[in-house]
Amino acid sequence: LLGQILDQWFESEPLKATLATDAVIGAMASPYTPGSGYVLLHHVMGELEGQRGAWGYVAGGMGALSQAIARAAAARGAHIFAEKAVCHVLLGRDGQAQGVALQDGTEVRSKLVLSNASPQITFLKLTPQEQLPKDFVQRIQQVDTRSPVTKINVAVDRLPSFLAAPNARDGRPLPHHQCSIHLNCESTDLLHQAFTEATHGQPSSRPMIELCIPSALDPGLAPQGCHVVSLFTQYTPSVLAGGQPWDEQARNAYADGVFDCIEAYAPGFKASVIGRDILTPPDLERIFGLPGGNIFHGGMSLDQLYFARPAPSYSGYRSPIPGLYLCGSGAHPGGGVMGAAGRNAARVALEDFRCL
Protein backbone atom coordinates (compact mmCIF):
# COMPACT_ATOMS: atom_id res chain seq x y z
CA LEU A 1 0.00 0.00 0.00
CA LEU A 2 1.36 3.39 -0.95
CA GLY A 3 -0.06 4.98 2.18
CA GLN A 4 2.09 2.74 4.37
CA ILE A 5 5.21 3.42 2.30
CA LEU A 6 4.72 7.18 2.54
CA ASP A 7 4.12 6.97 6.28
CA GLN A 8 7.48 5.26 6.67
CA TRP A 9 9.41 7.97 4.86
CA PHE A 10 7.58 11.25 5.46
CA GLU A 11 5.78 13.13 8.24
CA SER A 12 4.14 16.00 6.31
CA GLU A 13 0.62 15.15 5.21
CA PRO A 14 0.55 17.67 2.31
CA LEU A 15 3.84 16.21 1.02
CA LYS A 16 2.58 12.64 1.32
CA ALA A 17 -0.68 13.50 -0.42
CA THR A 18 1.13 15.34 -3.23
CA LEU A 19 3.32 12.30 -3.86
CA ALA A 20 0.26 10.06 -3.61
CA THR A 21 -1.39 11.80 -6.55
CA ASP A 22 1.05 10.11 -8.93
CA ALA A 23 0.07 6.77 -7.43
CA VAL A 24 -3.61 7.21 -8.27
CA ILE A 25 -3.43 9.39 -11.37
CA GLY A 26 -5.75 7.97 -14.00
CA ALA A 27 -6.62 5.04 -11.71
CA MET A 28 -9.88 4.24 -9.99
CA ALA A 29 -7.89 3.58 -6.83
CA SER A 30 -7.09 5.08 -3.45
CA PRO A 31 -3.63 5.63 -1.94
CA TYR A 32 -4.65 2.72 0.30
CA THR A 33 -5.47 0.38 -2.59
CA PRO A 34 -3.04 -2.59 -2.84
CA GLY A 35 -0.66 -2.08 -5.75
CA SER A 36 -1.00 1.72 -5.83
CA GLY A 37 2.70 2.03 -5.04
CA TYR A 38 3.59 0.65 -8.48
CA VAL A 39 1.66 3.40 -10.26
CA LEU A 40 3.81 5.97 -8.43
CA LEU A 41 6.95 4.11 -9.49
CA HIS A 42 5.68 4.00 -13.08
CA HIS A 43 5.37 7.78 -13.16
CA VAL A 44 8.81 8.55 -11.73
CA MET A 45 10.90 5.80 -13.33
CA GLY A 46 11.76 7.83 -16.43
CA GLU A 47 13.78 10.98 -16.99
CA LEU A 48 13.70 14.21 -18.95
CA GLU A 49 16.93 15.70 -20.31
CA GLY A 50 18.95 13.67 -17.85
CA GLN A 51 16.85 14.55 -14.80
CA ARG A 52 15.30 11.42 -13.31
CA GLY A 53 11.61 11.49 -12.44
CA ALA A 54 11.09 14.82 -14.18
CA TRP A 55 8.21 15.77 -16.44
CA GLY A 56 7.92 18.66 -18.88
CA TYR A 57 5.66 20.62 -21.17
CA VAL A 58 5.73 20.15 -24.93
CA ALA A 59 6.19 23.46 -26.73
CA GLY A 60 3.08 24.05 -28.81
CA GLY A 61 0.97 21.59 -26.82
CA MET A 62 0.85 17.78 -26.81
CA GLY A 63 -0.18 17.74 -30.46
CA ALA A 64 3.27 19.10 -31.32
CA LEU A 65 4.78 15.82 -30.07
CA SER A 66 2.61 13.82 -32.48
CA GLN A 67 3.58 16.17 -35.29
CA ALA A 68 7.28 15.74 -34.50
CA ILE A 69 6.93 11.95 -34.63
CA ALA A 70 4.99 12.25 -37.89
CA ARG A 71 7.70 14.43 -39.47
CA ALA A 72 10.41 12.00 -38.41
CA ALA A 73 8.47 9.08 -39.89
CA ALA A 74 7.72 10.94 -43.12
CA ALA A 75 11.42 11.77 -43.48
CA ARG A 76 12.09 8.02 -43.50
CA GLY A 77 9.48 7.40 -46.19
CA ALA A 78 6.33 6.76 -44.15
CA HIS A 79 2.95 7.69 -45.60
CA ILE A 80 0.50 9.11 -43.05
CA PHE A 81 -3.26 9.25 -43.62
CA ALA A 82 -5.22 11.30 -41.10
CA GLU A 83 -8.99 11.20 -40.63
CA LYS A 84 -9.16 7.75 -42.26
CA ALA A 85 -11.00 5.46 -39.87
CA VAL A 86 -10.12 1.77 -39.95
CA CYS A 87 -13.07 -0.59 -40.35
CA HIS A 88 -11.34 -3.93 -39.78
CA VAL A 89 -8.11 -5.87 -40.13
CA LEU A 90 -7.78 -7.82 -43.36
CA LEU A 91 -6.91 -11.50 -42.97
CA GLY A 92 -5.70 -14.01 -45.53
CA ARG A 93 -6.91 -17.58 -45.90
CA ASP A 94 -4.13 -18.68 -43.56
CA GLY A 95 -5.35 -16.26 -40.87
CA GLN A 96 -2.38 -13.93 -41.36
CA ALA A 97 -2.92 -10.16 -41.16
CA GLN A 98 -2.71 -8.68 -44.65
CA GLY A 99 -3.55 -5.03 -44.01
CA VAL A 100 -6.59 -2.97 -43.05
CA ALA A 101 -9.86 -1.91 -44.63
CA LEU A 102 -10.96 1.70 -44.19
CA GLN A 103 -14.52 2.82 -43.64
CA ASP A 104 -14.58 4.42 -47.09
CA GLY A 105 -13.90 1.00 -48.64
CA THR A 106 -10.20 1.50 -49.33
CA GLU A 107 -7.99 -1.48 -48.60
CA VAL A 108 -4.40 -0.92 -47.47
CA ARG A 109 -2.34 -4.06 -47.95
CA SER A 110 0.61 -4.82 -45.69
CA LYS A 111 2.59 -7.78 -44.44
CA LEU A 112 2.42 -6.46 -40.87
CA VAL A 113 -0.19 -4.45 -38.94
CA LEU A 114 0.65 -2.59 -35.74
CA SER A 115 -2.30 -1.23 -33.75
CA ASN A 116 -1.94 1.72 -31.43
CA ALA A 117 -5.62 1.44 -30.54
CA SER A 118 -6.71 -0.08 -27.24
CA PRO A 119 -6.85 -3.88 -26.90
CA GLN A 120 -10.64 -3.61 -26.75
CA ILE A 121 -10.91 -1.78 -30.06
CA THR A 122 -8.16 -3.81 -31.71
CA PHE A 123 -9.46 -7.25 -30.82
CA LEU A 124 -13.16 -6.76 -30.10
CA LYS A 125 -14.06 -4.36 -32.94
CA LEU A 126 -11.42 -4.52 -35.67
CA THR A 127 -10.58 -8.23 -35.67
CA PRO A 128 -12.96 -11.02 -36.78
CA GLN A 129 -13.97 -12.72 -33.54
CA GLU A 130 -14.01 -16.20 -35.06
CA GLN A 131 -10.27 -15.89 -35.67
CA LEU A 132 -9.46 -15.33 -31.98
CA PRO A 133 -9.29 -17.89 -29.15
CA LYS A 134 -12.36 -17.67 -26.94
CA ASP A 135 -10.33 -17.43 -23.73
CA PHE A 136 -8.34 -14.54 -25.24
CA VAL A 137 -11.51 -12.68 -26.18
CA GLN A 138 -12.90 -13.24 -22.70
CA ARG A 139 -9.73 -11.88 -21.13
CA ILE A 140 -9.86 -8.70 -23.25
CA GLN A 141 -13.54 -8.26 -22.36
CA GLN A 142 -12.67 -8.51 -18.67
CA VAL A 143 -9.88 -5.91 -18.67
CA ASP A 144 -10.65 -3.29 -16.02
CA THR A 145 -11.04 0.01 -17.89
CA ARG A 146 -12.71 2.05 -15.17
CA SER A 147 -11.63 5.68 -15.30
CA PRO A 148 -11.88 8.37 -12.62
CA VAL A 149 -10.72 11.21 -14.87
CA THR A 150 -12.51 14.33 -15.99
CA LYS A 151 -10.30 16.75 -17.92
CA ILE A 152 -11.26 20.41 -18.00
CA ASN A 153 -9.50 22.82 -20.35
CA VAL A 154 -9.93 26.45 -19.33
CA ALA A 155 -9.22 29.81 -20.96
CA VAL A 156 -8.67 32.69 -18.52
CA ASP A 157 -8.08 36.40 -19.05
CA ARG A 158 -5.45 36.66 -16.31
CA LEU A 159 -3.01 34.56 -14.35
CA PRO A 160 -4.51 32.84 -11.27
CA SER A 161 -3.34 34.43 -8.03
CA PHE A 162 -3.09 31.99 -5.12
CA LEU A 163 -3.50 33.00 -1.50
CA ALA A 164 -0.39 31.00 -0.61
CA ALA A 165 1.72 32.85 -3.20
CA PRO A 166 0.06 36.00 -4.61
CA ASN A 167 0.97 37.25 -8.07
CA ALA A 168 3.64 39.86 -8.66
CA ARG A 169 2.49 43.36 -9.50
CA ASP A 170 3.59 43.04 -13.12
CA GLY A 171 1.40 39.94 -13.51
CA ARG A 172 4.23 37.81 -14.86
CA PRO A 173 4.28 34.08 -14.11
CA LEU A 174 6.09 33.04 -10.94
CA PRO A 175 7.95 29.72 -10.48
CA HIS A 176 4.90 27.92 -9.09
CA HIS A 177 2.86 28.90 -12.16
CA GLN A 178 5.34 26.90 -14.26
CA CYS A 179 4.85 23.66 -12.30
CA SER A 180 2.02 21.26 -11.49
CA ILE A 181 -0.20 22.69 -8.76
CA HIS A 182 -2.06 20.15 -6.63
CA LEU A 183 -5.28 21.21 -4.90
CA ASN A 184 -7.48 19.34 -2.43
CA CYS A 185 -4.40 17.29 -1.58
CA GLU A 186 -3.80 18.30 2.02
CA SER A 187 -3.92 14.69 3.18
CA THR A 188 -4.06 11.16 1.83
CA ASP A 189 -7.30 10.68 3.74
CA LEU A 190 -8.83 13.45 1.64
CA LEU A 191 -7.84 11.59 -1.51
CA HIS A 192 -9.30 8.39 -0.12
CA GLN A 193 -12.56 10.16 0.70
CA ALA A 194 -12.77 11.50 -2.87
CA PHE A 195 -12.21 7.97 -4.18
CA THR A 196 -14.88 6.51 -1.89
CA GLU A 197 -17.52 8.92 -3.19
CA ALA A 198 -16.82 7.84 -6.76
CA THR A 199 -17.15 4.15 -5.91
CA HIS A 200 -20.76 4.96 -4.97
CA GLY A 201 -21.40 6.61 -8.33
CA GLN A 202 -21.00 10.19 -7.11
CA PRO A 203 -18.42 12.67 -8.45
CA SER A 204 -16.07 13.71 -5.66
CA SER A 205 -17.27 16.74 -3.73
CA ARG A 206 -13.62 17.74 -3.15
CA PRO A 207 -11.91 16.20 -6.18
CA MET A 208 -8.19 15.80 -6.57
CA ILE A 209 -7.10 18.61 -8.89
CA GLU A 210 -3.83 18.82 -10.80
CA LEU A 211 -3.66 22.32 -12.25
CA CYS A 212 -1.13 23.25 -14.92
CA ILE A 213 -0.69 26.54 -16.79
CA PRO A 214 1.31 25.59 -19.90
CA SER A 215 1.04 29.12 -21.32
CA ALA A 216 3.19 30.32 -18.40
CA LEU A 217 6.10 28.61 -20.17
CA ASP A 218 4.76 28.68 -23.74
CA PRO A 219 3.18 32.14 -24.28
CA GLY A 220 2.19 31.28 -27.84
CA LEU A 221 -0.67 29.13 -26.54
CA ALA A 222 -2.78 32.17 -25.56
CA PRO A 223 -3.17 35.86 -26.45
CA GLN A 224 -1.03 38.30 -24.50
CA GLY A 225 -2.19 38.61 -20.90
CA CYS A 226 -4.40 35.53 -21.18
CA HIS A 227 -3.62 31.94 -20.28
CA VAL A 228 -4.77 28.37 -20.78
CA VAL A 229 -5.26 26.26 -17.66
CA SER A 230 -5.31 22.47 -17.80
CA LEU A 231 -7.25 20.74 -15.01
CA PHE A 232 -6.76 17.00 -14.55
CA THR A 233 -9.38 16.03 -12.00
CA GLN A 234 -10.67 12.90 -10.29
CA TYR A 235 -12.63 11.10 -9.10
CA THR A 236 -15.57 10.96 -11.47
CA PRO A 237 -17.21 7.58 -12.19
CA SER A 238 -17.81 6.54 -15.78
CA VAL A 239 -21.38 5.62 -14.83
CA LEU A 240 -23.23 7.84 -12.37
CA ALA A 241 -25.40 6.45 -9.58
CA GLY A 242 -28.78 5.24 -10.79
CA GLY A 243 -27.54 5.10 -14.37
CA GLN A 244 -27.88 8.85 -14.74
CA PRO A 245 -26.17 10.16 -17.90
CA TRP A 246 -23.25 12.57 -18.02
CA ASP A 247 -25.42 15.21 -19.70
CA GLU A 248 -24.68 18.93 -19.92
CA GLN A 249 -26.26 19.56 -16.53
CA ALA A 250 -24.10 16.90 -14.85
CA ARG A 251 -20.96 18.09 -16.63
CA ASN A 252 -21.48 21.71 -15.68
CA ALA A 253 -22.45 20.89 -12.10
CA TYR A 254 -19.21 18.99 -11.62
CA ALA A 255 -17.10 21.69 -13.30
CA ASP A 256 -18.75 24.35 -11.15
CA GLY A 257 -17.76 22.35 -8.08
CA VAL A 258 -14.16 22.13 -9.32
CA PHE A 259 -14.08 25.87 -9.95
CA ASP A 260 -15.48 26.53 -6.46
CA CYS A 261 -12.58 24.51 -5.03
CA ILE A 262 -10.03 26.48 -7.05
CA GLU A 263 -11.68 29.75 -6.00
CA ALA A 264 -10.99 28.89 -2.36
CA TYR A 265 -7.26 28.70 -3.15
CA ALA A 266 -7.16 31.48 -5.77
CA PRO A 267 -9.92 34.07 -5.27
CA GLY A 268 -10.99 35.65 -8.54
CA PHE A 269 -10.35 32.53 -10.61
CA LYS A 270 -14.01 32.02 -11.53
CA ALA A 271 -14.34 35.63 -12.69
CA SER A 272 -11.30 35.19 -14.95
CA VAL A 273 -12.76 32.22 -16.88
CA ILE A 274 -13.73 33.08 -20.46
CA GLY A 275 -14.15 29.54 -21.76
CA ARG A 276 -14.06 25.92 -20.68
CA ASP A 277 -14.17 22.45 -22.22
CA ILE A 278 -15.33 19.58 -19.98
CA LEU A 279 -14.36 16.02 -20.87
CA THR A 280 -15.89 13.34 -18.62
CA PRO A 281 -14.98 9.63 -18.92
CA PRO A 282 -17.66 8.99 -21.60
CA ASP A 283 -16.37 12.02 -23.54
CA LEU A 284 -12.79 10.74 -23.39
CA GLU A 285 -14.00 7.39 -24.70
CA ARG A 286 -16.05 8.89 -27.53
CA ILE A 287 -13.48 11.43 -28.71
CA PHE A 288 -10.19 9.60 -28.18
CA GLY A 289 -11.21 5.94 -28.30
CA LEU A 290 -10.19 5.37 -24.68
CA PRO A 291 -12.16 2.40 -23.27
CA GLY A 292 -14.16 3.63 -20.30
CA GLY A 293 -12.26 6.91 -20.63
CA ASN A 294 -9.15 5.19 -19.23
CA ILE A 295 -6.04 7.13 -20.27
CA PHE A 296 -3.91 3.96 -20.02
CA HIS A 297 -6.17 1.76 -22.22
CA GLY A 298 -6.74 -0.30 -19.07
CA GLY A 299 -6.01 -0.06 -15.36
CA MET A 300 -2.37 -0.16 -14.21
CA SER A 301 -3.18 -2.67 -11.48
CA LEU A 302 -0.85 -5.54 -10.63
CA ASP A 303 -3.11 -8.09 -12.32
CA GLN A 304 -2.91 -6.12 -15.59
CA LEU A 305 0.81 -5.44 -15.83
CA TYR A 306 3.97 -7.12 -17.11
CA PHE A 307 3.22 -10.67 -18.40
CA ALA A 308 -0.54 -10.08 -18.02
CA ARG A 309 -0.75 -6.95 -20.22
CA PRO A 310 -3.00 -7.19 -22.16
CA ALA A 311 -3.35 -10.93 -21.52
CA PRO A 312 -1.18 -13.79 -20.28
CA SER A 313 0.97 -15.27 -23.07
CA TYR A 314 0.43 -12.14 -25.17
CA SER A 315 2.56 -9.55 -23.37
CA GLY A 316 5.25 -9.69 -26.08
CA TYR A 317 3.31 -7.43 -28.52
CA ARG A 318 2.34 -10.32 -30.80
CA SER A 319 -1.34 -11.30 -30.91
CA PRO A 320 -3.23 -14.50 -31.74
CA ILE A 321 -3.35 -13.17 -35.31
CA PRO A 322 0.03 -13.67 -37.03
CA GLY A 323 1.28 -10.34 -38.31
CA LEU A 324 -0.94 -8.25 -35.99
CA TYR A 325 0.83 -6.44 -33.15
CA LEU A 326 -0.29 -4.24 -30.27
CA CYS A 327 1.90 -1.17 -29.74
CA GLY A 328 -0.17 1.21 -27.58
CA SER A 329 -0.74 1.82 -23.88
CA GLY A 330 -2.62 -1.44 -23.53
CA ALA A 331 0.66 -3.30 -24.12
CA HIS A 332 3.63 -3.60 -21.75
CA PRO A 333 4.71 -1.43 -19.92
CA GLY A 334 1.49 0.58 -20.08
CA GLY A 335 0.60 4.24 -20.31
CA GLY A 336 2.60 7.44 -20.13
CA VAL A 337 4.32 9.66 -22.67
CA MET A 338 7.45 7.55 -23.14
CA GLY A 339 7.05 5.49 -26.31
CA ALA A 340 8.35 2.28 -24.71
CA ALA A 341 5.49 0.09 -25.90
CA GLY A 342 5.78 1.36 -29.46
CA ARG A 343 9.54 0.96 -29.59
CA ASN A 344 9.42 -2.55 -28.18
CA ALA A 345 6.59 -3.57 -30.52
CA ALA A 346 8.49 -2.20 -33.53
CA ARG A 347 11.56 -4.26 -32.65
CA VAL A 348 9.46 -7.44 -32.37
CA ALA A 349 7.65 -6.70 -35.65
CA LEU A 350 10.95 -6.03 -37.46
CA GLU A 351 12.36 -9.27 -36.15
CA ASP A 352 9.37 -11.18 -37.55
CA PHE A 353 9.50 -9.22 -40.82
CA ARG A 354 13.05 -10.37 -41.48
CA CYS A 355 11.84 -13.95 -41.20
CA LEU A 356 9.10 -13.56 -43.80
TrEMBL record:
Gene3D superfamilies: FAD/NAD(P)-binding domain
InterPro entries found in the cross-reference section: Amino_oxidase (IPR002937), FAD/NAD-bd_sf (IPR036188)
Pfam families with a match to the protein in the record: Amino_oxidase (PF01593)
GO cellular component, one term: mitochondrial matrix
Domain of life the protein comes from: Eukaryota
GO terms of molecular function: oxidoreductase activity
Record bears the keyword Flavoprotein: yes
Location (main, coarse): mitochondrion
Chain ranges of the Amine oxidase domain: 28-195
Location(s) in or outside the cell: Mitochondrion matrix
Annotated keywords: FAD, Flavoprotein
UniProt function note: Probable oxidoreductase that may play a role as regulator of mitochondrial function.
PANTHER family (UniProt xref): PHYTOENE DEHYDROGENASE (PTHR10668), PYRIDINE NUCLEOTIDE-DISULFIDE OXIDOREDUCTASE DOMAIN-CONTAINING PROTEIN 2 (PTHR10668:SF103)
Family: Belongs to the carotenoid/retinoid oxidoreductase family.
Subunit note: Interacts with COX5B; this interaction may contribute to localize PYROXD2 to the inner face of the inner mitochondrial membrane.
Protein name: Pyridine nucleotide-disulfide oxidoreductase domain-containing protein 2
Organism: Crotophaga sulcirostris
